[in-house]
Amino acid sequence: MKRIGVLTSGGDSPGMNPAIRAVVRRAIYEGMEVVGIKRGFKGLIEGDFIEMDARSVSGIVNRGGTILLSSRSEKFKTLEGQKIAVENMKKWGIEGLVVIGGDGSYRGAYALYKNWGIPTVGVPGTIDNDLWGTDLTIGFDTAVNIALEAIDRIRDTATSHERLFIIEVMGRTSGFIALYAGVAGGAEDILIPETPTHLNEIIKRLEEGKKKGKVSSILVVAEGEEEGGALDIARKIRDKVGYETRVLILGHLQRGGSPTAIDRILATRLGSGAVEILKEGKGGVAVGWVNNALKITPLPETWEKKKPIDADLCELALIMSI
Ligand code: F6P
Q: What is the pTM of this model?
């Protein structure tokens, strides 16, 4: 393979830039040329392409967001949209493609491989950590640390006012960010979609905590929690026991900022690994990091299998909040 493309797609995540950098530099090191595609699959359809060289990715290893920009494309889900994209790739001589993104982006990458025979490799770029085939996704560690900083700060004011705070974090339908940030921040309870939530038990624990001398409490809620988001939980608790609560929804704050060392290193390993896979002429797969080694997974497996939440951490969360 002489010439490959790279794009970022879906919700951006801190670490996408070091991943782009790794793809570009590894490819050049291997004697290949690299074309950057702007705005994900939308740019693939619109032919919004740029030639990239080693210097075009200088000074981005520490930057959040993505220099290639990102979007979600409805048109690319149609065969008509894909056909235009494939024609553009042919015009530019692009023989293989690295797709950095989450599960929606992986589906796009697989469509190119399955319907049009183009070798594609997925690199897991999402703060949600919800992809099968990798222990961690790029951006997860940074998002957890941002959420953790918020929890630590809220703890100060919550303690001063002896209040109950409910903090909502992102994660789409998964609770990884909530669980990790909640355990690290010493949350009294963590509400995630992977485990059943019993509000009466949570309230009981909060009341017991008060009796045992706890002056403040923090609940961390994943946005996909089945009982609802932080505002719903606050309302339900108020309706049940009349507690006055304060709510913080962290939202897109979790997607910005400089990637942590863990995310930069992961991005460097996986971006580089994706190029090696394309070099071997393989496609239709995702590259991941499992048990401290590169792991290749067929793309459909990454959304057909559900990554299990850490049961031990769920248990520890409860033990630690006695
Ligand atoms: O997948 C990343 C993510 O940040 C999710 O955690 C969240 O549910 C979603 O994207 C938000 O999407 P948007 O940026 O389109 O509001």
A: 0.97
